[in-house]
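Quiz preparation item.
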């Protein structure tokens, strides 16, 4: 029997959601659709449908975002992450490293010179998937540059580079077929790609970096939410991973260990998820106390609430997304 997170076990309880304006989503999707333009684009209708799904997913995940530019920046990162991840999973580890190195070179170059066109870079990887990843990266650079200030752009891109590094590690872990759950989780909590979303959320709320740096509870909250979200991907995606013979899933990896099976491994994963979610709730509550005593700003509290709520909003998305069905 495959695992299932019952709604009453999902902590925290599902947050309020803001009713999405379909006309606004459609208008934003027309801008975001530039992420999907490449030499393989054949259908404008399909392109817009994908763009609308991305924008709607961001509104669902972060219902309290104030600026449409932040929604679009997050949608650009979501599209880049999902599509590059799909390409990388089909490549051997060495080719994946070349493809990600090409993409990283484009991203690093874009930080050094804000005026340089990313179109001028062509990497050493000759696999068609590398061409696709380069195109996605160039589209992302163009989109993000026009949506956020340079300081935010640099923060986001630096954290995207960390995700790319973790994806390289994951490719080698997949090829080596090593059933080290600890190593896998360390990598998986990076490849899930939440840090760039957190950067953009902080920018949207105009948070004081010094205040965030002074409050270690916020870092602990981010860590617990990231773990819960990573586990949701594996729990909800287990059926597909088993069908695709995907070796990197915490449940199937744990099930292969002595004195374990799929059921006990599934139960353990759900328990780990709920412990992380419960810890996140407790941390968010402790931050509320700091806000009441004026030790923490209101914007930081809104940030903490949005990060904590991501456990429920991400679960709603991952449960309906085709990539995990």
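Solution:
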């Amino acid at each position: 029997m495959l695992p299932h997170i019952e709604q009453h076990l999902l902590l925290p309880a599902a947050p309020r959601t803001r009713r999405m304006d379909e006309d606004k989503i459609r208008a934003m999707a027309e801008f975001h659709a530039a992420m999907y333009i490449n030499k393989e684009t054949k259908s404008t209708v399909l392109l817009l449908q994908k763009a609308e799904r991305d924008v709607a997913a961001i509104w669902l995940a972060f219902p309290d975002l104030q600026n449409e530019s932040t929604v679009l920046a997050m949608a650009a990162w979501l599209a880049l992450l999902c599509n590059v991840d799909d390409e990388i999973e089909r490549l051997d580890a060495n080719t994946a490293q070349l493809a990600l190195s090409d993409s990283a070179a484009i991203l690093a170059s874009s930080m050094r010179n804000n005026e340089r066109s990313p179109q001028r870079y062509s990497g050493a990887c000759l696999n068609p998937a590398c061409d696709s990843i380069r195109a996605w990266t160039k589209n992302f650079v163009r989109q993000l540059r026009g949506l956020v200030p340079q300081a935010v752009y640099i923060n986001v891109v630096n954290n995207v580079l960390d995700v790319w590094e973790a994806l390289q590690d994951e490719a080698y872990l997949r090829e080596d077929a090593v059933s080290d759950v600890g190593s896998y989780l360390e990598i998986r909590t990076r490849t899930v790609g939440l840090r760039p979303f957190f950067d953009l959320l902080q920018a949207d709320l105009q948070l004081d970096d010094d205040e965030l740096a002074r409050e270690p509870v916020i870092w602990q909250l981010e860590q617990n939410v990231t773990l819960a979200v990573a586990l949701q991907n594996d729990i909800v995606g287990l059926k597909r991973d088993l069908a695709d013979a995907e070796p990197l899933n915490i449940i199937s990896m744990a099930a292969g260990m002595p004195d374990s099976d799929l059921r006990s491994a599934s139960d353990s994963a759900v328990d780990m998820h709920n412990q992380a979610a419960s810890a996140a709730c407790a941390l968010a509550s402790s931050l509320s106390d700091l806000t009441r005593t004026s030790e923490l700003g209101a914007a930081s509290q809104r940030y903490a609430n949005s990060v904590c709520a991501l456990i429920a909003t991400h679960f709603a998305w991952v449960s309906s997304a085709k990539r995990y069905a």
